[in-house]
Amino acid sequence: MLDAEAMDTALVRLAQEIVANNEDLHAVALMGILKRGRPLADRLAAHIDNMTGQRVRVGSLATTLYRDDLRSGKNVGSVGTHVTHFDFDVEGLTVVLVDDVLSTGRTIRAALDEIIDYGRPKKIQLACLVDRGLRELPIQADYLGWSISTKYEDHVQVKLKEIDGEDVVLLERSAEADS
Fold first, then answer.
1. CA-CA distance, 15 to 53, in Å (whole number)?
2. Is 88 inside any structural domain?
3. In a domain, 158, yes or no
4. C-beta neighbour count of 67 within 10 angstroms
5. Which domain holds residue 132?
6. CA 7/CA 169 separation, integer angstroms
């Protein structure tokens, strides 16, 4: 779906939109949802800095303990693998949640619950690289890199050079989707 160049172009556009919609960048914090949201948040912060000369705050959210499917007994990964980390108070800030793929909305709901546990931001916005549809909750991105219609059986994979050694977004269609 996206190669490294297209991914960077999308991130530059997202950074431009964040700047355009937030007059006071000193009151903005980017919170990357782990695992791939954090490197994307770091890249967005670098693009914002290059455009404006202002470095926005960046932090990480590990939403595993806030997932509703954890309470239901479904396997959502190992607890404790990733850790929430930021060194600033979210009270009164505009927090931009950053994630790689938006699908059902459940990860974003978990991130909203977690961030509220740390304080009351002035505003919360959402930036996602890819929206694959399939929403189960009324959540949408304020800033979106790419949108594609998928089925539950399809798989959207974001690879980042910081984690995977390359920048690419892949779409693997299920065999059922091809028939």
1. 13
2. yes
3. no
4. 20
5. 4-151
6. 8
106 phi/psi in degrees, rounded to 5? -70, -35
Q: Which of 47, 5, 4, 1 is nearest to 143 (CA)?
A: 47
pLDDT of 80 higher than 90: no
Rounded distance between C-alpha atoms, residue 10 and residue 27, angstroms: 23
d(CA 153, CA 149) in angstroms, rounded, equals 12
For residue 141, the model assigns a pLDDT of 98
Q: Tell me whether residue 46 is in a domain.
A: yes
**CA separation for the pair 52, 93 (Å, rounded):** 19
Provide, rounded to the nearest whole percent, the portion of the chain with pLDDT above 90: 84
Report yes or no: 31 and 59 within 8 Å, Cβ to Cβ: yes
What is the count of structural domains for the chain?
A: 1
CATH number of the domain where residue 12 is located = 3.40.50.2020
Q: Which of 96, 94, 111, 99 is nearest to 146 (CA)?
A: 99
Which residues, 6+ apart, have CB-to-CB distance to 32 below 8 Å?
38, 39, 40, 41, 42, 58, 59, 60, 61, 98, 99
